[in-house]
Amino acid sequence: MKRLVAALAGLSIALAAAPALAQSNTAGAAADTPIPAKDPQASVEKTTISDLIANPKTKAVLQADMPELLSYDGLDQIKGMTLRDISAYPQANLDQARLTKIQKDFDAIP
Questions:
Q1: 10-residue mean pLDDT series, the chain (110 residues)
Q2: Is position 42 within any domain?
Q3: Structural domain tally of the chain?
C-alpha cells in the first residue's frame, strides 16, 4: 500500500509535465482502446474522478477496485481527470485490464 501511495504521489509531479508527457510517452499508458459504458454517468472514459467520488455507488466501486486512489494525497489535483487520463501515468498502476474491471463494476451498479 505504501508503495502504491508513493507511486501515486509521483503522479502529482508528473501532472506538471502532463501535456508533454501525454504526447511523447505512451509506453506505460493503458491501451487506447475505448471501454464502452452502459451508463454514461459512470465511465472510465468520460466521467471525472470528482464526479465518480461524488456518487456513493461509483465511489464504492473505486473503494473496492482502486482504494489507493481515494487515499492519494494529490487527489484534489487530479479530480478533473478521468481514470483513462490518469492511466497514461505508470505510477497510477492502471492498465487496460484494471480499467475494464472498474468499468464492468460501474456497469453492474443497479
A1: 47 42 45 67 94 97 98 96 97 96 95
A2: yes
A3: 1
